[in-house]
Specification:
single chain; alpha/beta; 9-stranded mixed beta sheet; 6-stranded parallel beta sheet; 17 strands; globular
């Protein structure tokens, strides 16, 4: 009989649904040292939380996250709330001896992220671990790209070109949901999706952004107030309110290894639904990935004769590819939800082994410092700004 690890989750909307799917499926496909149990779901509305718990597979309901943390049958706390509550919940959970997995970005400010890191370091001394949920690291093609860069397949990194393109708020009458309010979200496209490409670029290359020059823009300054929202959908209510975050962020940067990088994060790229794309050019070759074709990694070997060279498609579904062997026969592709399953699989294994999971809260803090440098640069006419701690 394996030990059981009770999971309590705070929040049940978009990210809550994806994390619930991960907790439901992970034990069926991976041989885990601990058996996760979906013990309790916390939300503010008793009725709505009960409905979500029944649908998503949670055994109990709490209307106060503090009561969820206090439960003796909860050993893991999964935080799927807006960024303004991450620090308070995570710090309380860690101090209570609970392992914590927290959605990205880690916090709304560098100061909050630093406090979370301090709590995580103190908890680690008692054998309690914490991880920030950058799920795209767990896409098999992205993990394979990291492996090949680490093996030297593309040589020295010269360029990183990363974009994350969505279009769900192109309509100026789309309601003012929490993701468009700075006090709740911290920033707009920058923190929501820009954080992902920052982490993905640093993860694949194994390097760090040391400085940035940025520009941001809010195209629609005012929107109808939201009557309710679910995921990336919402209904309009009475009145209008100010949009207090960026709609788009563009920045260039320098990598710790001397390479150059460019980033674009926007929710105004009409026709693009979830296009996270990254290309890395090295002295010996290049890699290219597009999440809208998530089972494919494109590789160019520049050491071949010109007559034989060019990008070739690698279908990342073989049993020897990262994570892929636990699922379907070769060629039977994975989807968006699988990255979250891989995420909790790695987290459970780290808990059982007593090792630090990755990405850690320290990794989340580093991304937060890049976000802060981008905002500072954009506020100062794109002045090149050093990333703190780089």
């Amino acid at each position: 009989m394996r030990p059981v690890a009770g999971v309590g989750m705070v929040g049940y909307a978009f990210m809550g649904r994806t994390h619930s799917q991960a907790w439901r499926s992970v034990d069926a496909f991976f041989d885990l040292p601990l058996k996760p149990a979906m013990v309790a779901l916390a939300g503010r509305s008793a009725e709505a939380t009960a409905q979500a718990a029944e649908k998503l597979g949670w055994a109990h309901v709490e209307t106060d996250w503090k009561r969820l943390i206090a439960r003796d049958d909860v050993q893991i706390v999964d935080i799927c709330t807006p960024g303004d509550s991450h620090a308070e919940i995570a710090i309380a959970a860690l101090e209570a001896g609970k392992h914590v997995i927290c959605e990205k970005p880690l916090a709304n400010t560098v100061a909050e992220a630093e406090a979370m890191v301090a709590a995580a370091r103190a908890a680690a001394e008692r054998g309690v671990v914490a991880m920030v949920a950058f799920n795209y690291r767990r896409v098999p093609a992205v993990a394979l790209a990291r492996q090949w860069v680490a093996e030297g397949r593309i040589g020295t990194v010269r360029h990183v070109r990363a974009v994350y393109l969505q279009d769900w708020i192109v309509d100026p009458e789309f309601p003012l949901v929490w993701r468009l309010q700075k006090d709740k979200a911290g920033s707009g496209s920058l923190g929501d999706i820009g954080a992902h490409i920052i982490d993905t670029a640093e993860f694949i290359t194994g390097e760090r952004l040391t400085g940035v020059s940025a520009i941001t823009e809010t195209f629609v300054k005012e929107r109808p107030l939201a009557a309710g929202s679910a995921g990336l959908s919402a209904g309009g209510g009475e009145g209008r309110g100010e949009v207090t975050v960026d709609d788009a962020a563009l920045f260039i940067g320098r990598l710790s290894g001397g390479g150059l990088a460019s980033f674009e994060a926007t929710r105004f790229a009409s026709g693009r639904k979830n296009a996270l794309r990254i290309e890395i050019n090295g002295s010996l070759g290049s890699l290219s990935f597009d999440f809208e074709a998530m089972n494919e990694l494109w590789f160019h070997d520049h050491t071949l004769p010109a007559e034989d060279s060019g990008f070739r498609r690698v279908l990342v579904t073989e049993s020897g590819h990262p994570y892929a062997g636990a699922w379907w026969p070769p060629g039977h592709g994975l989807g968006y939800e699988h990255g979250f399953t891989h995420e909790v699989k790695d987290f459970i294994e780290a808990i059982a082994a007593g090792t630090a999971p990755a990405p850690s809260f320290e990794d989340g803090l580093r991304v937060q410092r890049v976000l802060a440098a981008v905002e500072q640069s954009a506020a100062e006419a794109s002045r090149f700004t050093t990333v703190e701690g780089s």
